[in-house]
Every structure is written in structure tokens, then in C-alpha cells.
Amino acid sequence: MRVLHTSDWHVGRTFHGRDLLRDQEAVLGGLADLVSDERVDVVVVSGDLYDRAVPSGEAVETCVRVLSRLRAAGAEIVVTPGNHDSAARVGAFADFASAGGLHLRTRISRLHEPVLIDDEHGPVAFYGIPYLEPDPARHALEASADVAGAAARVEARTHAAVLTEAMNRIRADISPRGEQVRSVVLAHAFVTGGDSSDSERSIAVGGVEDVPGSVFGGVDYVALGHLHGPQRLDEHLRYSGSPLAYSFSEAAHRKSVWLLELDAGGLSGVERRELPVPRRLATVRGTLEDLLTAAEHTEHEDCYLSATLTDEVRPLEPMRRLQERFPHAVHLEWQPEGGRATAPLRYSEAVRGRDDQTIAKGFVADCRGSDPTESERLLLQEALRAVDIAEVRR
């Protein structure tokens, strides 16, 4: 059996205000070609199908088209929700969808019930562990403690505790099935040793969010979701990462999916398949004039751009001017060079012994790096005079 491991689609996400639905559909829809070319039997999505618990209508339509293309290419699909998803919404009509080859594993109480898909060697059991928020998950697990091998109570309120209990239930289900049944677990979690980026929402509870990889022992492969960089923690324990970059911290990522093969004895191999990049990310630094004129930046003109301006004085309308050359500039910071004092100043120290006009002029100079012009000083005087008049009339 050939299985394609992907996760963290985040359909409906924007990138610094830019709509990504078209890019997402192009990349994710292209997985159907990979399914066809590589003779993939099953596609697994390990959480964060959507970017929001209540996705827009356009995001849902995009996701439906992508899933339909994957199914039409010949793959069964197994999905479990992540921390961005609403498990109830993702799992709506799950029993009906499974008849069409879309298996939505969203209920904590049923995480020990696998999707069984056969190949020439027998069944492969796919278990979906939805994202487990520790406290609600603990109650859900306790409420369903009548399953074979389940503990009566989950004492600790941590990610590690609820995931340990989830895996105990899965192993209890695998054991009586015999060695001929191979197993794949989908899980959405932060496993110790994984490298994070700026685009993942923290799942820390009580200051602890990671779980040891040893929790996931006893299965043939664990398809992890949550971290957006593709990475291998062990031969059978991997993150596929997100299919697109969702922060500039991911600029160096090689976005990809894992293609794994299961033979009669279990996991026989895992290969990487890189995904296309709809638009590259780039970061640049320099004065505004340098960024607008230097030939070395020509290669960045079609990239999503993050610029750090080093001008001693904050330029006027810098983003508008940048976008004349870099139409996809989306992020801007000003970090002036030249040793300007940046030490924090307490409010009482900043205003002591100064009149309102001096304080206002100092604020402009501190924010921009230069004193107000004559016309700006007149505007400040007029504004302060209007405030004084309003306070007298009050």
C-alpha cells in the first residue's frame, strides 16, 4: 500500500492580508496528479484542514474541490482535525462521507476505531487522533472509558497524558487483530524535538505543549501534523509540514509531502516529494532608496517581500513606494541605523518639566527620527489649542 502523508492545509488562510485560496487550490489540487502518477492508495491529512473553526464558504468550496480531485484520482482519504479546526464541523456527515471514500475521524470517543483499508497483504488500520485539548479531552476519554483496556480516569491535565491514553486505547485495539494488521496513526501535536516556525498557533497549556515521541510507540507509522516544516523525528515518526509557507520564517522550507510504502511486514520505505511554490518569499534590508534602485533586488520583484528599512529618518509612505517596484511587498519594519537610543523611557520621565507642545514634538521626533517640519509644528499647535478650548467648554 502506498500512502501520501500531508497536513496543515489551513485552507482559507491569508498571508499578511493577501488571499491565498487560489495558490492553495493550485498546490493541493496538484496532489491529485501525484496520487495518479505514484499510484497512491490513501491520502492522510493530519489536522488543520481549515485555518478557522468556522471557515468561509469560499474556503469550504475550495476544500471540497481539492478532496474531490484526490478521490477522483483513485485515493481513499483519511482526515483528522487540528487545533485550528472545529472537530464537529469537519466531522459533519462523517458516516455518509465514508461511503464515498472520505473518512473523517473527529470524535475522541471513537479514536480507537480504525478505518480498515485492504491491500494484497491484508488490512491496514488507520487511526485518527484529533487535536486533544487536555481538559475537554480528559473528560471525553473518561466518559468513554468502557472501551477495552481504557483507564477509568486520566489523572494529569497535559497533552502528554491525554495522548498517552489515546495511544493506549489504539494499541489495545491493535493487539487482538494480530501481526498481519499494519497500523498508521494520524495525530496533531507538538512532539519533542520538532522545529517550530512563526505561523503555528501555540497549543501550550500550563506552559507545556510538547509530548515525547515515545508516546507513539507500537505502530508502523505516525503521520504528524501541527509543525509547518517537513521533518523526520524517527523513521516512522514524521511531520509533513504545511503545503505552503504561511510566515517569513518558513522562507527556507522545502515544502513537501511524505510518500510511504507498507508491505506485508509493515513500513518498508518513506520518500519525499517536493511541492511547487506559487510565489517565493524574500526578505531585504537597506535604505528605501537602495531597495528601490539597486539591481541586486531585481530577483525579488515577484516575491512576497518583507522589508526592513534602515533609513535614519522614517520615509514617507514607504509601503506605497516599495510596492511600485515590489507589488507583492506585504511586511515592513523600520530599524534605523546610526545608534539612535532605543532604551525605554518611563512616562513620568518623558513628560517631567515639559509643556504639551514640547512633548508632542518629542513624540514625532522619537517615532520618525527627525523633528517636525514648520508646517507640522503649526498643525500640532492648532490641535493642542483645539484641545484646550474643548476642555474649557466642558
Automatic annotation (TrEMBL):
Coiled-coil stretches: none
Record keywords, A-Z: DNA recombination, DNA replication, Endonuclease, Exonuclease, Hydrolase, Nuclease
Keyword Hydrolase among UniProt keywords: yes
Calcineurin-like phosphoesterase domain: residues covered: 1-229
GO function terms (MF aspect): exonuclease activity
Domain Nuclease SbcCD subunit D C-terminal as annotated: residue spans: 278-364
Membership in a protein family: Belongs to the SbcD family.
Oligomeric and partner information: Heterodimer of SbcC and SbcD.
Function comment: SbcCD cleaves DNA hairpin structures. These structures can inhibit DNA replication and are intermediates in certain DNA recombination reactions. The complex acts as a 3'->5' double strand exonuclease that can open hairpins. It also has a 5' single-strand endonuclease activity.
Protein name: Nuclease SbcCD subunit D
Record lineage: Bacteria, Bacillati, Actinomycetota, Actinomycetes, Pseudonocardiales
